[in-house]
Design brief:
The chain is elongated. Strand 4 and strand 5 form a beta hairpin. It is α/β, with parallel strands linked by helices. Strands 1-4-5-7-8-9 form a six-stranded mixed sheet. It has two domains: about 180 residues, no CATH class; about 120 residues.
Length: about 375
């Protein structure tokens, strides 16, 4: 295996996607500040130079020369956020690189500008202060990503994506897909048809319900990870695995989850799920997964840090539930991302009142006046 250095290292199909991505998001300039047309030898040289400069540090594209330079790994998580404001500042501003090397990096940065992103429309190619570089996010992925036929790992997290290119359905070798920290409100059903997909992460997206593809993938791929509980309960754990971006691990009854980050569950003497612990600093869920209401032996449920705006009427099916903890680390405001009406059916207020513990400090549910009703 070898890290990408030049556009010539890549198979011609894969190189087309790289060119499309660069053409969509970058403008290139020569030393005199003149824009380089997005075609021809000068542009190809600029793309190769930028790729070599980029992957010298981040190594976000991994290719295999044994299969004609096909891309196997593509890591675009918070691409511009991490590449420009953080590691450049770390390398250049802390003066860990000096003299000609430092000047070459600054020259390379100043040779390109970014466009078609959620960022300022124009950037001075010859003088943008490094410390003032904004956070940039990808908002669309070129359809030519479908040409990466040998791709196994794809991380598109930490951007502002709202849709996936349909050509991803042609990636028959894809094993792991990360979509966390984006703006997806739903996901396409065809994700469940990717034949080799083993891992899917959709955590921290403004989903309104569990997408159908998540349920199907949980049944096909994730339920087998939890063979210590009944199959129907294993599917629910699989759904939580995908929604949270991590595999929930079983705790013994005398064990306790980590206080800062937890993906755990416990089972009772009959082998049914009795406790679920999900802690994360960051908006884990924006909805209450109704599938949880089928865990009729559930005694304690913790979903720490969330933006849940409603509770389902079927929650009252959990006759054994004693603790419902929906604590959030921050008081979420009503912005465009969370503008739905907050809803809790009147019929479950008596159920909530009878819980031994119902915690929702700093949760938007407090706006419903639950503290006055309980």
């Amino acid at each position: 295996m070898k890290y990408l250095r030049k556009i010539e290292d890549i198979h011609e199909d894969d190189a087309q996607f790289v060119r499309d991505l660069m053409a969509q998001y970058f403008l290139y300039f020569d030393k005199g500040g003149r824009k380089i047309p997005s075609e021809g030898k000068a542009y190809e040289e600029a793309v190769s130079e930028f790729l070599g400069f980029l992957y010298e540090f981040e190594k976000d594209i991994l290719i295999d020369h044994k299969v004609k330079g096909r891309i196997r790994k593509l890591h675009l998580h918070s691409w511009f956020t991490y590449l420009l404001p953080f590691w450049i500042r770390d390398i250049v501003m802390t003066k860990r690189i000096h003299g000609n090397s430092k000047n070459k990096i600054i020259e390379s940065i100043n040779k390109f500008a970014v466009h078609n992103l959620l960022a300022p429309d124009e950037i001075d190619p010859c003088g943008s202060p490094l410390e003032d570089l904004p956070n940039w996010y990808l908002n669309i992925i070129p359809e030519s990503i479908g040409l990466l036929s040998k791709l196994k790992y794809l991380d598109l997290g930490g951007n502002h994506l709202t849709i996936l290119p349909e050509s991803i359905k042609t990636l028959k070798s894809l094993r792991e897909l990360k979509l966390s920290f984006n703006m997806f409100k739903d996901l396409p059903d065809w994700l469940a048809d990717l034949p080799k997909l083993r891992r899917l992460d959709v955590s921290c997206n403004p989903l309104k319900t569990v997408p159908n593809c998540v349920i199907k993938i949980a049944k096909k791929r994730y339920a087998r990870c939890h063979n210590d509980v009944p199959y129907e309960e294993a599917i629910i754990l699989g759904i939580l695995d995908i929604l949270s971006g991590d595999i929930l691990l079983k705790l013994e009854n005398d064990q306790f989850p980590d206080g800062d980050y937890a993906r755990n569950y416990k089972v009772n003497e009959d082998g049914h799920i009795s406790h679920i612990y999900m802690y994360q600093e960051g908006v884990l869920f924006e909805f209450f997964p109704e599938q949880l209401c089928d865990l009729v032996d559930l005694e304690e449920l913790y979903i720490i840090d969330n933006a849940i705006t409603s509770l389902p009427e079927s929650l009252s099916k959990l006759k054994e539930l004693k603790v419902l903890d929906l604590f959030s680390y921050r008081n979420y405001n009503l912005d465009d991302w969370r503008s739905e009406e907050f809803k809790i059916p009147e019929s479950i207020f008596p159920f909530l009142k009878n819980l031994e513990k119902f915690r929702y400090e700093y949760n938007v549910l407090k706006k419903l006046g639950l503290d006055k009703r309980n």
